[in-house]
Amino acid sequence: MQRPIMVAVGGDSGTGKVTLCKGLREIFGEERCVEVRLDGYFGLNRAQRHAVSITALDPRAHNFAQMEEDLWHLAHGETVEKPIYDHRRGAVGRHETIEPREIILVQGMFPLYTWALRSLFDVAVWLEPDAGLKQNWAIHRDVTERGYTEEQVRAELARRRPDYEKYIAPQARYADLRACFSQSGVTFYKSARLAPLNSSEIATKYSRMRELERDGGPFPRTILEVDGTIDEPSARFLEDAIWKRIGNRHATVRPERLGLFTDEAGSHSSPMLALTQLFVALRICLVANELSDAAAV
């Protein structure tokens, strides 16, 4: 049996990790994917964190030993009993059985924090909206899903900011793909582990690609900047270019619409999010090709 493909989806709270994983499940099919949320691995509940004056972004509040052990077992095709964090109570409430599938999507704030964790992943993506977008996204989620008021969310984000900069943000340097969102668009920082796209494949008046130094692989790292004013035909052109690289060997039927998300105004489609989903899917397919070819030898 081929081992699972381990995918890390990292970023601060409220940065779109759940939404990204939903798009990946649509691309590859629910039956082939399982999602693991790392917020179950708190070592201290909310009351305990408040008692010792540390935030949820402080590594001392998390049980990394159990996190590493459970993910190791999943990476080796073994079932685990994983804790579930109740955000309304602020504590671990129960456990769930996670059975490994072909693609394991691991999302949370600390997926790349330790060497042991980083060594488990075939694909790593980091989501990094600017401060304004992150605040808006977090407010929408926590007010609608977790029972907080807007004032509580704003206060908590301000309290967490130093720990975010100290413990969470530095993990971005370990990602294969770093997606930095802003009101003006998105900038993708792509490592050499991602299949290269030449400038002609992504050439539109809304997109620009620059090469950086090589980082040990056969291809250079690249930066792709996509303007937030991109029109529908240009967005579709970019999506088509990446989907052509994905092919149909390991992906399912192409979803009619990617990049779907919900905010206070309703449901929308974001070409920036769609491109992020497609870049990650491309890397997953490359890993699947490598594993299939190795098994055939």
Topology:
Elements (H helix, E strand, L loop, with lengths): L4 E6 L6 H12 L4 E5 L8 H6 L12 H12 L4 E7 L4 E8 L4 E6 L6 H4 L4 E7 L1 H15 L4 H19 L8 E6 L2 E6 L16 E8 L5 E8 L4 H15 L13 E4 L2 E4 L1 H26 L1
Parallel strand pairs: 1-5, 1-6, 2-5, 6-7
Antiparallel strand pairs: 3-4, 7-8, 8-10, 9-10, 11-12
Helix pairs in contact: 1-8, 5-6, 7-8
Overview of the structural elements:
- The chain is built from 8 helices and 12 strands.
- It has helices at residues 17-28, 46-51, 64-75, 115-118, 131-145, 150-168, 232-246, 271-296; strands at residues 5-10, 33-37, 80-86, 91-98, 103-108, 123-129, 177-182, 185-190, 207-214, 220-227, 260-263, 266-269.
- The strands form 3 sheets. Strands 2-5-1-6-7-8-10-9 form an 8-stranded mixed β-sheet. It has a two-stranded antiparallel sheet with strand order 3-4.
- Helix 1 (17-28) crosses helix 8.
- The two termini are 14 Å apart.
- 35% of the residues are buried.
N- to C-terminal distance: 14 Å
The chain-level mean pLDDT equals 86
What count of domains describes the coordinates?
A: 1
What overall form do the CA principal axes indicate? globular
Strand order of the largest sheet: 2-5-1-6-7-8-10-9
Q: What is the CATH first-level class name?
A: Alpha Beta
Oligomer: single chain
Tally of helical segments: 8
Fraction in beta strands: 25-35%
Biggest sheet: strands, sense, closure?
A: 8 strands, mixed
Query: What structural category do the secondary elements indicate?
Result: alpha/beta
Number of strands: 12
The CATH topology is given as Rossmann fold
Which blocks of ≥5 consecutive residues have pLDDT under 50? none
